[in-house]
Amino acid sequence: MAKFVYRLQNVLDVKYRLESLEKTAYAQAAARLAEEESKFQELLTRQNTYRAELKEASNGVLDIKHIQHLSDSMEVMKGLIQKQFLNVNIAQKNLEAARTRLNKAMQERKIYEKLKEKAFENFKTELADQEKKEIDELVSFTYNDANSDESD
């Protein structure tokens, strides 16, 4: 029996590898986004802590140096939070780009898989046609051979 050999198998293998690489890149981008979001939340928590300390320092015995220090810390936190917010947005855009590349790689792989399936179906059809032809030839040969024996 004939063996099915897909002539574009090398291309399909490359598409599998590319898809795997894109999955890895997507996972890395997702991890980076999670890390940036975590840092952002950490900064917000620190800012809230400074805000609470500033409010507490403003109620009681006033220590101007401490209040000034907390106020400066709040300003620094605002700058850090804005910077981290930009980092989160960049990480989100990178994740979306990785998702787009992954989707494209998956679509290309699926196209080549469908081509392989169609090629295999054509192979099975050709094989079945060839078997029918051989059976018809065998039956025809047997019938003609039987008829030639009777006429002798």
Task: Describe this structure as you would to a colleague.
Keywords: Bacterial flagellum biogenesis, Bacterial flagellum protein export, Cell membrane, Chemotaxis, Coiled coil, Membrane, Protein transport, Transport. One of its GO terms (biological process) is bacterial-type flagellum-dependent cell motility. It is a peripheral membrane protein. The chain has 152 residues and is an all-alpha fold. It has a domain at 12-112: Helix Hairpins (Orthogonal Bundle). Helices cover 91% and strands 0% of the residues.
Task: Please give the CATH class of the domain at 12-112.
Answer: Mainly Alpha
Report how far the terminal alpha carbons are from each other: 38 Å
State the shape: rod-shaped
Fraction in beta strands? under 5%
The fold-level CATH name of the domain at 12-112 is Helix Hairpins
Series of H and E elements: HH
Quaternary status: single chain
What low-confidence regions span 5 or more consecutive residues with pLDDT below 50?
A: none
Counted by DSSP, the helix tally is 2
Mean pLDDT: 91
Cα gyration radius (Å)? 36 Å
The helix content is over 70%
Task: Give a count of the beta strands, DSSP E runs of length 2 or more.
Answer: 0
Assign the structural class, choosing from mainly alpha, mainly beta, alpha/beta, alpha+beta, or little secondary structure: mainly alpha
Please describe the biggest sheet, giving its number of strands, its sense, and whether it closes into a barrel.
none
Please identify, by name, the CATH architecture of the domain at 12-112: Orthogonal Bundle
